[in-house]
Design a protein that fits this description.
344 residues, alpha/beta, 5-stranded mixed beta sheet, 3-stranded parallel beta sheet, globular
């Protein structure tokens, strides 16, 4: 019996010593590696939303979301212009990210539990706090949502707005007639053409629709908001290194504003004695290595894009046609919700 046992053990060890016949599949490269090799960041954006993502007369994309994508390109490639923008409808946006058609989605998309937990994607932070509002013609004479009982309301398909609206009016025993459209452009065309009594969307999008169409004299947004709509960039779940790059690029924009580092003074700030400023701008090494980037990654963001406040002001703030107040999008030190995590 002992000789048989010794033979079995010998055979087992011999088997384990044999080379594996099944080849090991190559590890899928991270998005960061792909972007560095490609030399371009591909971002999914809205098909056209003034202040957030809209091409100008020369075809150059501009907006708060466009700046977010440019910040990532500056961080990774050292050049904020090394970007490609893919306009996506509400129905297309998440599939485009899941399939790898885009590297990141930054398309005024609300962060929700279902989206974060079940779509194979994850959010990298909030770059704009919003809420769902309603627009009406001034001729209608409506001043509050309670007066919209029985009204027809235009809404875009594939958005959180359908669900929010239905729940809000149902809970108040008010009947409405939703008119659902496949795209926001069709919705705008129908509403401004008089097909609906009201239109619902994020309040910032409603402001954009009025400003870009010059309709402020004839239409207004009601003061009530019915939901929280935190908007931010998304990446694919499981790609943690790329998620970190996008997340900390956003926080770098906010940290720069908090430290009063601007596009105009960033070179002077390289001489700062503040250890946090030195770490942020790469004078003191560490952050770049942790992210797999050049140590001057955040410097490149501020030099080419500016800080978050500068981006907000020129795209959606008082210097823009939208003329939105900072409100809850102000820094936490100024009564808002924008709070960068420690960049160290």
């Amino acid at each position: 019996m002992q000789s048989i046992a010794r033979g079995l053990w010998a055979a087992a060890f011999a088997f384990l010593a044999l080379p594996l016949a099944i080849p090991v599949a190559a590890q899928t490269p991270s998005t960061l590696e792909v972007v560095k090799k490609r030399g371009q960041v591909i971002c999914g954006v809205n098909v056209g939303l003034g202040g957030f993502s809209l091409p100008d007369s020369q075809g150059k994309w501009k907006g708060l979301d466009v700046d977010m994508c440019g910040a990532v390109a500056a961080a990774v490639l050292g050049d904020s212009t090394k970007t490609k923008f893919v306009p996506l409808s509400a129905q297309q946006r998440f599939l485009a990210l899941q399939s790898g058609e885009i590297d990141m989605l930054v398309r005024n998309s609300t962060i929700t539990l279902e989206r974060d937990a079940s779509l194979g994607i994850q959010y990298a932070g909030v770059n704009f706090y919003d809420g769902q509002g309603f627009m009406v013609s001034k001729k209608l004479g409506v001043k509050k949502l309670a007066e919209l009982g029985g009204a027809t309301i235009c809404v875009a398909q594939g958005t959180t707005h359908e669900f929010n609206m239905a729940g809000y009016f149902r809970s108040r025993n008010l009947t409405i007639k939703p008119v659902v459209f496949e795209s926001q452009d069709l919705m705008y065309e129908a509403f401004f053409g008089g097909r609906c009594d009201a239109m619902t969307q994020d309040s910032s999008a409603l402001a954009s629709a009025l400003a870009t169409r010059g309709k402020q004299a004839d239409y207004e947004t009601l003061p009530e908001l019915i939901s929280k709509e935190p908007l931010g960039p998304f990446t694919r779940r499981g790609d943690d290194q790329w998620l970190a790059v996008v997340r900390w690029s956003l926080f770098a924009l906010l940290e720069a504003e908090e430290k009063e580092i601007t596009q105009a003074n960033v070179d002077e700030q390289l001489k700062s004695n503040d250890p946090l400023v030195k770490r942020l701008l790469g004078v003191t090494a560490g952050n770049g290595k942790a992210l797999g980037l050049d140590e001057k990654w955040a410097y490149a963001i501020v030099k080419q894009i500016g800080n978050y406040g500068e981006s907000f002001e020129r795209n959606v703030g008082m210097a823009s046609p939208l003329k939105l107040q900072r409100g809850i999008n102000a820094l936490w030190t100024k009564g808002g919700l924008m709070y960068p995590l420690p960049l160290r």
